[in-house]
Amino acid sequence: MEISRSQSFFQDLSSREFNGFRVRKRPRFSADIALSFKEVGTLAVEHDGDQTPPLAVSFCKTLKNSHIFALSDEDGFVSLFNTCSRFSLFSSHEENSEKSRVCEWEAHRNAVFDVCWSKDDTQMITASGDQSMKLWDVQEMKCIGILRGHKGSVKSISSHPTNHDIIVSGSRDGSFALWDLRTSSCCKVGSEELSLQATAVVKGAHLSSHAKRIRRQKSASKSITSVLYLQDELTVATAGAVDSVVKFWDTRNLKNATTRCQPKSSDKDTRLHGISSLSQDANGAFLSTSCMNNRIYLYNVLQLEKGPVKSFSGCQIDSFFVKSVISPDASYLLSGSTDGNAHVWQVDKPHEDPITLAKHSGEVSAVDWSSFEVGKFVTSSDDFTVRIWNCQNNSCSSSKRPTSGNRKRIMAMPTIEQAKD
Fold first, then answer.
1. What is the pTM (predicted TM-score) of this model?
2. DSSP 3-state assignment of 386?
3. pLDDT digit string (tens) for 86-116?
4. For residue 127, which phi and psi values (nearest 5 degrees)?
5. Is 304:261 a contact under the CB 8 Å cutoff?
6. DSSP strand E in 347-412: where?
7. What are phi and psi for residue 377, nearest 5 degrees?
8. b/e per residue, 170-186, with b = 16+ CB within 10 A?
9. Structural domains for the chain
């Protein structure tokens, strides 16, 4: 993308000064626990004896609840599990689930593709194939709001990093939308539920120039597969099924994407590859993208014009259900894989083969790291199980409350003139 001004977008960004702000220091991996993960428990994904494929996993975002994760599935249920439960070697997967399950409820009568924690883990937003999202009081397992407006399955949701009343959603209909849970443009659905409308919608956000010329296109070719509210608090990143382009949108002016990034094309491979997921580390320095060419790309948010700074291979990404996520401290990258394995790379060693965790017997789809318990993560699979992993010498009891420290906020969007998309 060409930007016609004397100083480039990224030179302008680097020259800006930011005030420091207080953040909690997250624990980091140390050398002695690197590359040494073990499975600590396997949970069955089933309801009343009927197995169902898991679709999304997400750990709580606060320190006190960092051992709990949410799981959503194809039958529309959301379940919360305690990863600090002690699992017997002789227990069945069903028994492990029963022991560690905190609660569960039917969130939608359709598949739940994504979940998003909010308000210090007291609330949750669910995104469903029924074209709606719901806001939940987690403690009461009660729906307190419904978000409607998309014309296709809602595939991805992400909340503002500091103001959890603001969220972004992406849909199979090709649009992404911003929502403010405090909005007055809502109406009562029942005695206690509110129906909310989006504050802004961008349609056809990832239509390729070729697709725009086709009158009747397949919905998959325009689907938004992942949205992410960046740590700079101003920028939304979006990715789609049509190609490997990530677009960045200034939420103060959504007329056009302000910039974009993508891997450099190869003469040997001219096909368009979609993106299945986006993730960012806790400090907002890096952005990872899972691409359907079986590669995961890592971008420096201050140097997007240079393309990926690192590329990781070794996994198989044959479906948009296969996700990846960078660890909160940006030390490791975790991915599912169609080959039935989970893979872990050291971020500073992209050319080395990943650690392969060969326990699942079906496609490994959604994965997630614990925000505060170093080295703990979960993997979910089409084999109807979720597996909990940990570093060999790490345990729940080893987590300590992080101390505060001064950090600089890494911004992805300065106030700049809109570039043509």
1. 0.84
2. strand
3. 999 899 999 999 999 999 999 999 999 999 9
4. -115, 130
5. yes
6. 355-357, 364-369, 377-381, 385-391, 404-408
7. -155, 165
8. bbbbbbbbbbbbeeeeb
9. 26-408 (2.130.10.10)
